[in-house]
Amino acid sequence: MKFFVDTADVAAIKELNDLGMVDGVTTNPSLILKSGRDILEVTKEICDMVSGPVSAEVVATEAADMIAEGLKLAKIASNIAIKVPLTWAGLTACKAFASEGHMVNVTLCFSAAQAILAAKAGATFISPFIGRLDDINLDGVQLIEDIRTIYDNYGFKTEILAASIRSVNHITDVARIGADVITAPPSVIKAMANHPLTDKGLEQFLKDWAKTGQKIV
Ligand code: G3P
């Protein structure tokens, strides 16, 4: 399973990247806003640091304008994945980018039907937003399972990039199903290390160690 980090916070990406935890990065207009940075500058900085795919999202709504924006974003670095929304215009742009050999991440996917269209349009990645489905009492993890089944039925090569991940359980749930990639905020990736029994066990070991009066170094 590949780990993408869902942020445009360069310091947070660096911390995880230095540990070898980062296979790629995803950004979106909201994350660029949060970073307070210029999209071209911050994306370039991320691409220089991370060797895997870095998703940068278009904001136009018509296919021709999306294509113009996407080609400009793709010029930032060779590891840019152009991110387009799952609209008819986005699928049109996806097909154009894929035909020219660009990586494409089709985002804002909320149904298996949409995921089929993205695969047909040559998407490199499909991004189902599982947290936002859970928010409206639908089952985001079930959507990942449905897309996995469908893609495997037909040998679609598009990678399932589980997005809008809100919890550690989301990550383990989609890993069990076989999502190819997760993208999660740095805080959720770091929370994967936490377990109360680890904390409790360590506390006891340290208490017992203190009683030995020994030192290792
Ligand atoms: O990867 C998509 C992500 O940025 C959206 O997450 O938590 O805003 O639904 P969220």
The helix/strand order is EHEHHEHEHEHEHHEHEHH
Secondary structure tally: strands: 8
| Distance, first to last CA | 38 Å
Q: Based on the structure given, which CATH architecture is correct? A: Alpha-Beta Barrel
Low-confidence stretches: none
Oligomer: single chain
- Mean pLDDT, nearest integer? 98
User: Quick one: overall form?
Assistant: globular
Structural class: alpha/beta
**How much strand content do the residues show?**
15-25%
In the CATH hierarchy, the third-tier topology is known as TIM Barrel
- List the strand order in the largest sheet: 1-2-3-4-5-6-7-8
Over all CA atoms, what is the radius of gyration? 20 Å
Largest sheet: 8 strands, parallel, barrel
| Total number of helices | 11
Walk me through what this model shows:
With 217 residues, the protein is an alpha/beta fold. It has a single domain, classed as TIM Barrel (Alpha-Beta Barrel). It is 53% helix and 17% strand. It is built from 11 helices and 8 strands. The protein has an 8-stranded parallel barrel with strand order 1-2-3-4-5-6-7-8, surrounded by 6 helices. Helix 6 runs parallel beside helix 8 and helix 8 packs parallel to helix 9. The longest helix is centred in the C-terminal third of the chain and has 17 residues. It starts with a strand and ends in a 5-residue tail after the last helix. The model has no long low-confidence stretch (mean pLDDT 98). SN-glycerol-3-phosphate binds next to helix 7. The site of SN-glycerol-3-phosphate (G3P) has 10 residues, from helix 7.
